[in-house]
Design a protein that fits this description.
The complex is a heterodimer of chains A (447) and B (334). Chain A has helices spanning 2-30, 35-39, 45-55, 205-214, 228-263, 268-282, 285-299, 312-341, 344-352, 356-384, 388-394, 399-408, 412-440, and strands at residues 66-68, 75-76, 90-93, 99-102, 107-109, 121-129, 135-139, 147-151, 161-168, 179-184, 187-197. In chain A, helix 5 (228-263) packs antiparallel against helix 6. Chain A folds into 2 domains: 75-197, Galactose-binding domain-like (Jelly Rolls); 228-440, MetI-like (MetI-like fold, Orthogonal Bundle). Chain A has 447 residues and is α+β, with helices and mostly antiparallel strands. Chain A starts with a helix and ends in a 7-residue tail after the last helix. In chain B, helix 8 runs antiparallel to helix 11 (206-220), helix 9 crosses helix 10 (193-203) and helix 11 runs antiparallel to helix 13 (235-272). Classes of the chains: A alpha+beta (447), B mainly alpha (334).
Chain lengths: 447, 334
């Protein structure tokens, strides 16, 4: 038994890692840095960079030496808009063969949004073209005389060329640290990118995420300015107060109706229940909420409509939650019961002369408990996430409400934490079911 | 239950004539059930509505016009449905009404389901909602079903390491809470229909994948697959040309049952402000109508609800019937 449990726990690890990886891919790789979404559009790049630094978004995704910096946005001059409007003496030519043309004698300062980090290695990548015999250089006046020359050879003057220039900043840096000096012949620039070199290539966003999780730190909510772990702690009690009664009520009612269906199987009563449950399933959840709120809360005034002041406020959402899920669960439990009804031991029991009640309650219900129990255990983790819609409609400050608000305000850390914890609870619940199975039925261990 | 024709056929079957295929058999079974046929015709009606909506939408885009369903008319805010107005007119004495602009029948047809707060025709918007619902149902299926089918086939057919990886992938996806996952994907991908498509499409392939995998494992050792392998056919060909047709009923049943679920989820998402923006989808309409409901404007809410209820019920009943007809064993796999 012990060995079985250990084996199952080991099998659980890849799934947990998978969930972590999926949330990482979703929010970091696909979503990218949420800085501009959270801070708004009119924020300095410096503020964005600080936001990224705090949340590890300015590191490479998985691993690597080079990472983007917000000091200089990647510039491609083929676009219609000149990204370097501020640079004097430069002429922008949009189009497929577009470029930024720097005339001879210009000394253009690279439009860095803020001073580069001190004592850090950077790499400047230029895609450029020069006429024959022209010379230009990139100089770092405050750093020293270090200047890199590049000039075109005669035969390749019509082709675009790429050059990578590495440099290291000093203790003090300013925003005018990098200059382009054009001595002779116009310099055409097509693309300019600046990359920062990491001290450690494995210091990535993924590692940052794992470290954060190892500290059980779920980050900060950007819209509420509170640690996510505290929001989760505050939200879980109202959520459970809503979902646990719904869960229990639904279980009780659904199993009773399913037993009734099994008892009256293939009669009008059974068919009526089946059709009703399909009809119940087909009514949208939203409609239950809106109609319930309107009629029972507003029109007839049976329940308070919105808020979370006393237990009375929970009655209506619990009722709506129960009835909206009833259709599907009745069908599910009925199928389970009917599956059992056609088994041999039921026929034997009938043949022995056991009454219908006896067969139903003593034989069928007992055997149907195994799939029912599985379903119950699997449903438990979902109690935790609360009910997204019910909570936001009835103003219950639980995790569902938190989640909906977080999604609406693009609060990545909160959404990620709820998704992650919900999934891990699900995995753990699965483990519990399997262990219970093994305990009840020793054959499982061998499988 | 067999009619004479099929009796004759089955007698012939011994002599090499072919019997009814699985599909013909299922169709014959469905034909006998009036409720199922009613559902089928309801769905056809919705399809016609959606096609009409699509034509109107394309036409307006092509001509660069404001489509009828977006036209605002502030003189006709909150106009009750046609039949309500007619009933009111019949109630009132003829003298009070003065000279009506329209005859009773015209009034019945004019704005048949009333107008909303901006004087837009609810009926036309409802038709557009049908169009969007079908888009959601079809495109999410086009994302989810290929993923589920290909991964399920590969996992079941190759087994071993491939199977391990795919099972790992789907158990990971299955353990993430559904609706929240969908909303998170939509949040990351960007709001609007595209978020809805990806959110629903990328999360709902798991069930299908699991079913197909289970079924393929059973089929793998059957004689026809062994024969195909003995003939030296390639793996891809065996998987897609030999095994897939034999498990395709699962795909059909899954499609009919996931269609209403996708529609329901879209309504949710649009309602929460993460789904459709600017187009009259059902969720957007419910969310608009909700606040006006408190002022006694019931028609928009009621008709949208009915429209959703109708299509979801029809698909659910049809899906159940199809499942019973094609493969009753799938029932327990709920």
């Amino acid at each position: 038994m012990f060995r079985y449990i250990v084996r199952r726990i080991l099998q659980m690890i890849p799934t947990v890692l998978g969930v972590i990886l999926i949330t990482f891919i979703l929010f970091n790789v696909v979503g990218g840095s949420p800085a501009s979404m959270t801070l708004g559009k009119h924020v300095s790049p410096q503020a964005l960079e600080e936001f990224d630094e705090q949340r590890g978004f300015n590191k490479p995704l998985f691993a690597g030496w080079w990472t983007k910096t917000r000091a200089l946005a990647d510039a491609d001059f083929r676009g219609a808009i000149n990204p370097w409007r501020a640079v004097e003496g430069a002429e922008h030519r949009p189009g497929g063969d577009g470029a930024l043309v720097l005339s001879p004698g210009t000394n253009a300062v690279l439009p860095l949004a803020f001073a580069l980090r001190p004592e850090t290695k950077y790499r400047l990548m230029l895609e450029y073209r020069q006429p024959e015999g022209a010379t230009a250089s990139v100089s770092f006046p405050n750093i020293g005389k270090k200047s890199l020359e590049f000039s075109a050879t005669a035969d390749k003057s019509r082709h675009w060329k790429k050059v990578e220039l590495d440099f290291q900043t000093l203790e003090k840096t300013t925003a005018a640290d990098v200059q382009l000096e054009v001595e002779e012949g116009a310099l055409e620039l097509r693309r300019v990118t600046l990359r920062r070199r990491m001290k450690n290539p494995f210091d990535s966003q993924l590692l940052f995420y794992f470290r954060q999780l190892a500290r059980l730190d779920f980050g900060m909510s950007s819209s509420l300015n509170q640690p996510v772990s505290r929001l989760l702690r505050d939200g879980i009690v109202p959520s459970l107060m809503l979902t646990v009664p719904i869960f229990l009520a639904e279980l009780l009612v659904a199993i009773s109706i399913a037993l009734l269906c099994a008892f009256f199987r293939d009669t009008l009563v059974d068919r009526l229940f089946v059709v009703t449950s399909v009809a119940l399933m087909s009514i949208n959840y939203l409609v239950w909420i809106v109609a319930g709120q309107y009629f029972m809360g507003f029109r007839w005034g049976w329940f308070p409509v919105w808020g979370f002041a006393s237990w009375r406020y929970l009655l209506l959402p619990v009722f709506i939650g129960t009835i909206s899920g009833l259709g599907a669960s009745v069908r599910f439990y009925r199928t389970i019961m009917l599956d059992e009804m056609y088994k041999d031991y039921v026929r034997t029991a009938f043949a022995k002369g056991v009454s219908r009640y006896g067969v139903l309650f003593r034989h069928v219900l007992k055997n149907a408990m195994i799939p029912i129990a599985t379903n119950i255990v699997i449903a438990i983790p979902f109690l935790y996430t609360g009910s997204l819609l019910l909570e936001s409609f009835f103003g219950i400050p639980g995790l569902g409400y938190l989640g909906v608000n977080a999604i609406n305000s693009s609060d990545v850390d909160v959404v990620r934490a709820i998704v992650l914890i919900g999934s891990i609870l699900f995995v753990v619940a699965n483990l519990m079911t399997d262990i219970c199975y093994a305990w009840l039925d020793p054959r499982v261990k061998l499988g | 239950m067999r009619d004479q024709k099929s009796d004759v056929r089955s007698r012939d079957a011994g002599a090499g004539a072919h019997g009814r295929s699985l599909w013909a058999d299922a169709w014959a079974q469905l034909r006998r059930r009036p409720l199922v046929m009613a559902c089928f015709w309801v769905i056809v009606a919705y399809v016609v509505m959606a096609l009409y909506g699509e034509t109107v939408y394309r036409w307006a885009r092509w001509k660069d016009l404001t489509p009828k369903y977006q036209e605002q008319n502030l003189d006709e805010q909150y106009m009750p449905p046609g039949f309500v107005r007619v009933a009111q007119r019949l109630d009132q004495s003829e003298k009070e009404a003065g000279s009506p602009q329209r005859s009773l029948v015209q009034d019945l047809i004019y704005r048949p389901l009333g107008t909303d707060g901006l004087g837009r025709d609810v009926f036309l918007r409802l038709v557009q909602g049908t169009r969007i619902a079908f888009y959601v149902g079809i495109i999410t299926s086009l994302i989810a079903i290929p993923i589920g089918v290909v991964l399920g086939l590969m996992a079941g057919y190759f087994g071993g390491r491939t199977d391990d990886i795919i099972v790992w992938l789907y158990s990971t996806f299955a353990s993430i809470p559904g609706l929240l996952f969908i909303l998170a994907i939509a949040m990351v991908v960007g709001r609007g229909l595209q978020g809805v498509y990806f959110g629903i499409g990328l999360t709902t392939w798991v069930g299908l994948c699991r079913l197909i995998r289970g079924e393929v494992i059973k089929h793998k050792s059957r004689a026809y697959v062994l024969a195909a392998r003995a003939l030296g056919l390639g793996h891809t060909r065996i998987m897609f040309r030999h095994i897939l047709p034999n498990v395709f009923h699962i795909v059909i049943v899954t499609f009919t049952l996931r269609f209403p679920a996708a529609i329901g989820t879209e309504v949710f998402m649009s309602f929460l402000g993460i789904g459709v923006v600017g187009e009259p989808s059902w969720g957007v309409m419910i969310s608009n109508a909700r606040l006006r409901l408190w002022h006694g404007v019931w028609w928009e809410m009621a008709f949208v609800t009915l429209a959703i209820f109708g299509i979801v019920l029809a698909f659910n009943l049809l899906g159940d019937a199809l499942r019973d007809a094609l493969d009753p064993r799938l029932r327990t796999g709920e």
